[in-house]
Structures are given as C-alpha cells and as structure tokens.
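Weekly modeling sync, notes
Attendees: S.R. (lead), two postdocs, one rotation student

Agenda item 3: backlog of single-chain predictions. S.R. asked that every request posted to the team notebook include the full sequence so nobody has to chase files. The rotation student volunteered to paste the first one in as an example of the format we agreed on. Action items at the bottom.

Example entry:
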Amino acid sequence: MLGVSQRWACQLVGQHRSTQRHQPVQPERDRALRVELRQLSRAHPRWGYRRAHAQLRQAGWAVNRKAVQRLWREEGLRVPTRRRKRQRLGSSTIPAARLAAEYPNHVWALDYQFDQTTDGRVRKLLDVVDEHTREALAIQVDIQVERRIDADATVAVLDQLVVERDTAPRFLRCDNDPELTANALRDWCRFTGAGTSSIEPGSPWQNPYVESFGGRLRDELLAVEAFSSLHLRPDNFTHHGCPRPANPLVGTAMAR
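Predicted structure, as returned to the notebook:
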C-alpha cells in the first residue's frame, strides 16, 4: 500500500515478519464455547460470566473462569441495566394544588400508616380525614386474618362512612399508593360520583391534613403505646376522634 516491501517495513518498525504474516485461527473449542455462551446469555439475561461459568462446569465443560470471562467480553455480552419500574399514578379530576375544602364532606383525605406489635408483626392503618372539619372519620386497623388493608378493604371503609354520614364526598384526596390507584377505588368513585385529586409522587405536603393527623396519631399513641395484638379496642382511638383543644396557631378546634 505504501510502495515498500514487507521485509523493509518490518525491519523499519522492528517487527518480525512471521508476526506480520500470522493469521489467527480461532480454536474449534472456542467457537463452540462462544455459541454456548451466547445461548446462555439469551436464555438468562440477568446472568454474568461467573454464573455462566458455573453452568458450563455443571454441563461438563472443562474450562476455567478466566477463559469464560475473556470470551464473554469478546462477544460483547453483559448484564443489561435494571430499569426501575414505572409507578402507576392516580388520575385527578382536579389538581391537588387547586383543591380546597369549602364545606363538610367536600374533601376526604386518605393515607396509610404502619406500625409494629411487640412480637414484630406489621400493623397497617387507614386514616380518613374530612379536610373542612379536620375530623378523623375513620382509623381502620388491619385486624383481618390476612392482616392487610388492600383496595377492597379501603372501599369497604368508604362505603361504611357513606352509610354513617348519609352522603359521599365530593372529592377524595390521596397519594399514589397501589391500593389508591387500583380499579376498585376508581370504580367506587365512578359509582358514587366522587372526584379524585391525586398528589404528585413524593409530595406529602400536598395532602397536609391527613399527614398532620397521622403525625399526631403516631406521636400521641403509636409511639407511646406498645400493642401485643392486632385486635385493638375502640377506646384506643376514642380520644383521637373526639373534639380537641383549639390550636393556638389557628384558633379553631380540630373537630366540633
């Protein structure tokens, strides 16, 4: 290509002529091993070369780990980056920032809390607060056999509140927990005519009233009392559903 002989060019750069003329020959064993590694990578995308090497050894291949690592890299095989699952977001009929309660039963706010019994079992609570009156409408504890409050249990609590108060809320304000974005709650809102106002992910300050109530409940009860059972007596929560002294910063009672 440069118009010079191969002998002169090799002598100029200090390279042996046999090296220049050498044509690498891929061993037949490596060719079969590469095919096997590609098949393992397609069958198990989350595997790296170490697990592939262990699988090859179990299949009877007499190959060391470094050889597998070299061929794995030469073939361009790698574990794909794990993608974070996209969280399902709730739909809103009105933005949370623009919604303000103007009368009782206008906006009900929902939120979940978690606590533990003395034997380490997780206890889940559902708080429902009327944003206009600041009244705790419900504090549901997961006392069922399966010890969980799912979307169906949340709907059952809302149905009971509608029966007790003889009306459904105009709006529900909640976050994007899976129970609150499930089809069961969406169907309940559609059947009762209630609108939804889902807050932005990671923005608890957009649901301030139920978050404030949950903080007081934890500070005054959950962080003070030690519960040995998931079955709690109603009088455990009576104080939190009754009228409270006026807040000196606001001048109005929590519920009247």
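Discussion: group reviewed the output briefly. The beta strands are 107-116, 122-130, 135-141, 171-174, 195-198.
Action items: rotation student to repeat for the remaining queue; S.R. to check formatting next week.
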